[in-house]
Amino acid sequence: MARTTVARRPNAGTKGVPRADREEQIVLAATAVFGSQGFAATSVADVAERAGISKPLIYNYFGSKEGLFTACLHRAGAMLAEEMERIARGDAVGLERALRTLEGIFTLLEPQPWIWRLFFDPTIPRGEERIAAEIAHYTDRITALADEGVREMMRLAGADDPLDVSALTSAWLSVADSLVSWWLDHPEETPASMTARCLRLFHVVLGAPLPSALTAD
Amino acid sequence: MARTTVARRPNAGTKGVPRADREEQIVLAATAVFGSQGFAATSVADVAERAGISKPLIYNYFGSKEGLFTACLHRAGAMLAEEMERIARGDAVGLERALRTLEGIFTLLEPQPWIWRLFFDPTIPRGEERIAAEIAHYTDRITALADEGVREMMRLAGADDPLDVSALTSAWLSVADSLVSWWLDHPEETPASMTARCLRLFHVVLGAPLPSALTAD
DNA sequence: GGGATATGACTCGCGGGTAAGTTACCACCG
DNA sequence: CGGTGGTAACTTACCCGCGAGTCATATCCC
């Protein structure tokens, strides 16, 4: 009867999963929950349950809810920025570049479409310096690419008002966002069919035939 | 010294503000806070403080946080839907109608630009039936108008795929959203200057001169 | 007095965060 | 080869503050 002071903990103990693997698994689960519900509406216990582990393990590895979110931002931002920079380094310009960028985004986001949402979450508490810095870093990189494309397009059209460029860049990023959202509501679409649909929509909106380069894959 | 059982409550009692006035004042404050911080990140005490009254009065008038939010949705949705339906009843079509709609939105949102956000808040807990119904009602009305305009435009361009219409409607609404957001970051802009900017941007994106009717006010 | 307007001071659950302990594995010693 | 200590991987059970929601009361005016 001396054992009464020692609680039984049948599920405790290591399961042999290396820290790096477990961290990735947790970040994946957290990204999904944060991305679909928003930061404030997500509890760490939710993430733990979805990841199939317990809450303290998350705190052991990430320190805090903010630390976990920052890790999600880091992963998602790096993926997005690198893909878009890779496309920007290609030789596509103007609308072809826009379409190629959308294609890249769709392909990248197919397995986990919520990624995008992390960077536009209004429920992140202000004054969280680490989070704000991480978001700024990646949105700056992505916005710089979009801005460059928009500025080139406007220059060709004879317009160069900096505020106009800024507003149109914002609108363009939002279009990309909305198309991803629309895709979320139509899960039967593939990256290829989404890209084809965007090609048709460009055609309609621009009211003129597109360069033939766009129709070839 | 028998008064020790009776707490002093110097600020209690009526201030002579009729319920209807007070309710409107509270809804205004709540809309601002909900719209800028999101539902989950907003506390009822925040709203009370901003409205200059106490928390129990909110519960007395609106019953719950969800009831308060529903009242905000009701007010904002009615304003937006009625304004857009008023414009739709006019004789503008195609791009002119689009620009007139944006103009109406900008004018309507100038005093309280957060209104728009209430309808795209991912932090609203699922399973809140009253909120979901209220949002669905107004977004359906607004989406129906946008869908009608987009369908007409696509028909003229020889396209009529229903899913294409759906996706383009989503993109168009998102463009309106992003322009409002951009405006939030550039508070020196007026509704008129925003409308003029949109006209220029339409011109650039469409790559062709606009109908002269658009340039006249 | 009584109804409408109003509030200070509570309760209570939820969620961020922690303390302390448990189990598995491995390196090393004999 | 068996013990043995160290460490990494994990959990249960808890603390505690914050915020939703309530109660009892206070003030005003007719």
Automatic annotation (TrEMBL), chains A, B:
SUPFAM superfamilies associated with the record: Homeodomain-like (SSF46689), Tetracyclin repressor-like, C-terminal domain (SSF48498)
Keywords, comma-separated and alphabetical: DNA-binding
PROSITE patterns: HTH_TETR_1, HTH_TETR_2
Keyword DNA-binding: yes
Keyword DNA-binding applies: yes
InterPro entries, sorted: DNA-bd_HTH_TetR-type_CS, Homeodomain-like_sf, HTH-type_TetR-like_transc_reg, HTH_TetR, Tet_transcr_reg_TetR-rel_C_sf
Domain called HTH tetR-type: residue spans: 20-80
Domain of life: Bacteria
Residues of the DNA-binding region: 43-62
Descriptive protein name: TetR/AcrR family transcriptional regulator
